[in-house]
Amino acid sequence: MKTKMTTFPLLSALFSLVLFMGITSPAHAAKWDEKMSPAEVEATLDTKFAEGKYSPKGADSCLMCHKRSEKVMDLFKGVHGAIDSSKSPMAGLQCEACHGPQGSHNRGGREPMIAFGPDSSLPADKQNSVCMSCHLDDKRMSWNTSHHDNADVACASCHNIHAAKDSVLDKQTEMEVCTSCHTKQKTDMNKRSSHPMKWNQMTCSDCHNPHGSLADADLVKPSVNETCYECHAEKRGPKLWEHAPVTENCVSCHNPHGSVNDGMLKTRAPQLCQQCHASDGHASNAYLGNTGMGSSVGDNAFTGGRSCLNCHSQVHGSNHPSGKLLQR
Amino acid sequence: MKYKLNLITLALLAPASFMATAGGYGLAEANTENVKFDKWVCKGCTVETGTTGSIGVGVGYNSEEDIKSANAFKSDNEFAGKLDADINYKGDKGYRASIEATDLGMDNGRADINVGKQGTYNINLNYRSIATYKSNDALTPYQGIGGNDLTLPDNWVTAGSSSQMPMLYSSLNPFELSLHRERAGLGFEYQTESLFTTFVNYQREEKSGIKQASGSFFNQSMMLAEPVDYTTDTLEAGIKLKGDNWFTSLNYNGSSFKNGNSQLSYDNAFNPTFGAQTRGYMSLDPDNEAHTVSLMGQFNDSVTAVSGRLMVGKMSQDQDFVTSGYGYQLPADSLDASVDLTGMNLKAVTRINRELRLNGSYDYSDRKNNTQVEEWTQISINETNGQVAYNTPYDHTSHRVKVGADYRINYGMKLDAGYEFKRDERSYQDREVTDDTNLWARFRVNSFEKWDMWVKGSFSHRDGSDYEASEWTSKEQNQLLRKYYLADRDRSQIEARVSYTPIDELTVDFGARYALDDYKNTEIGLTESEDTSYDANLSYMFNADVMFNAFYNHQVIKSAQSGSSNFATATWQADIEDNIDVMGAGLSYNNLMDSRLRLGLDYTYSDSDSTTQVRQGITGDYGDYFAKIHNVNLYAQYQATEKMGLRLDYKIEKYLDNDAANDIAPDAIWNVVGFGSNSHDYTAHMIMLSMSYKL
């Protein structure tokens, strides 16, 4: 990427997508992968890590060969290459903090080093153990057993630290990146109603933590409702007349990723309401809609207009003293 | 892992000739005994200071009159301007600053400004806006739109049905149904050299606009324009401590919601019926607060990770009741409602050896509604007078246990499986306890050259305590009704994905998914729902400069329910079928005209269609209910000089939707005064020219 991508979202989205799928160019298998099996590479790296034969001069030793690579030198444009921060790898084991002890890699480069990304032959969990040893914080404390960890996604499959800016953090490309695997959600967000994700007004990470969380579906808040209340605080109440399934779980009735129905409802009214309300009277009747015998779906208040909501408008609960039937 | 192996090599490798260890390469575990740090001077490390980045401006033109197009074009103005910026400053000694702005000035603008010293402190300023547009031609006879008192014109003449209202059509005026959010925040973080970090973030969000509501008297109803004037303040603060293998933090999160309108009053458009009411009053969402404190911790030594969270919270609301038009004694002026939240999560994962990893977790959450139960007289809306009702503050407790294992058969095959049990306990509901058990397994193979595939299956079963139509919910419910979120249910799901890369330039992947929910003991209510979907994606690189991708997703959701119009066994059935097709393609051509020009085309089409059929002797349907949307974006980006780039975007949205139940005149339903048809049919175009300048 020679040119700045951030101002051109669609193109860069496409570009990151292709990068993400790892097909930009023939797989960059490392030199050692030609002669060694992944098991050999991993066992060698384990031994090297235990032996701790670090280089005599740190980064300067590595740069003797690698300084010609633009990609390598781009590290110094980002935070991981900062030389004046006590928390940067450059303040500690420098290149070898992440890539492991040099050992005899300097003799022709055939001895494996820890390599990162989707093309590395080293299993993702071992790659990630390097990153996780510093990035131990509240946003990543549930990485182990998170959705992406279980799927063997390497940190470096999404993140690039040898750059001034990590492109996966760009909100304009986030939807493309996530939906390249999460295709069901891609369908959902293109339906009749959805949260405004199709045009990047909202992004996946507004609600989900890609690094895992202690909540269901890696939500950013402890529960579904608390996640929804982040933006829909007016529905938090507690109101005088609560509607039980609403209080319990917003997804009882809504699909937050999108639906063929208005308002992201799983089913339209009156059918949705009639799945729980069958009292003796109007809630139990069959509402046939267009019968070809004189009645039509738009000619009565039970199916036409807002259906049940024509009268029971306060479906999220009412705070009116006389609001038991959620009418006012 | 793109290492290419065939089956024979795999089989040979499987008996571990090279034993890998379970642990990872965490820095805390590094063996640094022999490192001579005094020689590690890093002469070759070149960090350039100064300002880099780019700044851009753009102007767009949209001629479409249907405001719904503004969702895709991000502005409801005919002419829209925007500012983009991506500026980075790096100084000596770790001082850094950055400004990022995207589409600032448009409806979905964002900006983030950070100033600080690396590893010491950071100050953040942020801004974000979101707008959603529904319609600009909703029709209403009411005056005072945007306010909290909706009145009919002075010359309004009420009638028994909407079509008999003589002044209705001459009084109708169009108004806009749209919502706008604007959010601004300020954050500060401070870190010490060693273990300690503290932070505080404050954010205010304002949401304004108009949404749809309905006001009713007895069996007559008017659609109303409900004003939205919300302010939500959020404050987060915490301290974090971190060591080599552990992390802990104590956090506070507070949120305060204020509604600029506490009630909505409106005139009755119909002849007054019971109670002779000519004015109605609706209680709007009350001001409320929520506060939580949580303590989190983690230990992780690359072999075992244990993490946990303890959380206590309170949600409260004490807004004065709406008393206008309510002529009865109230037990209190306000509800003084409060809910206590308690949560605990504990999770552990450990690697037994290189092949096997085990994990387990326990989650507890409790919602205790402490609101007083009182007697509330209900306004009579029919022949029954002055009924008294008691509020039912819901409590809900859940426990969940999960255990799982993943087993790596070899470098390209993995099997994982798990078991989950969840118990939910509820108060004042038809079923007090429900138990969910879930078993799942997944097998993944990516050891074949060019192929990566996985299959996952799960089965879950829900049952629980006796289902009783509780006196609290409604004693009049049909005894055979089983509400779907409480009912016995068997859920089976299977999903598979295959990704195939025959040549480096081409990737094809295919996925399919099937889920069946069987509410096997339900006679009245939702009885079955089935969700089938598949998708196919293709990416092809013609050469280093030309890329093409295409996708097609298809989904069918079917559900069946039964009802009883004689309050006994089922007399009618409803079948709903949703059909969704989404497809798209993108083509980009880079490095044209001596690497100065890029061209691209993106296209998406989506069709969501739903049909509803209800059968009781005869069969009826709910007519058209669909949305068909085409989106095209054609763009050209030209690097005019080394510093200056130009970009031209041409966007088209062809939008058509319908809902037969709402494609009706304001007086189409005798007892409803509606907003008129809410369907859309337009082809909108937008042209945007932007210019960026490299600093």
Automatic annotation (TrEMBL), chain B:
The keyword Disulfide bond does not apply. The keyword Membrane applies. Residues 1-22 form the signal peptide. It is found in: Cell outer membrane. One of its GO terms (cellular component) is cell outer membrane. NCBIfam families: OMP_MtrB_PioB. Its main location: membrane. It comes from Shewanella gaetbuli. Keywords: Cell outer membrane, Membrane, Signal. Gene3D superfamilies: TonB-dependent receptor, beta-barrel domain. This is MtrB/PioB family decaheme-associated outer membrane protein.
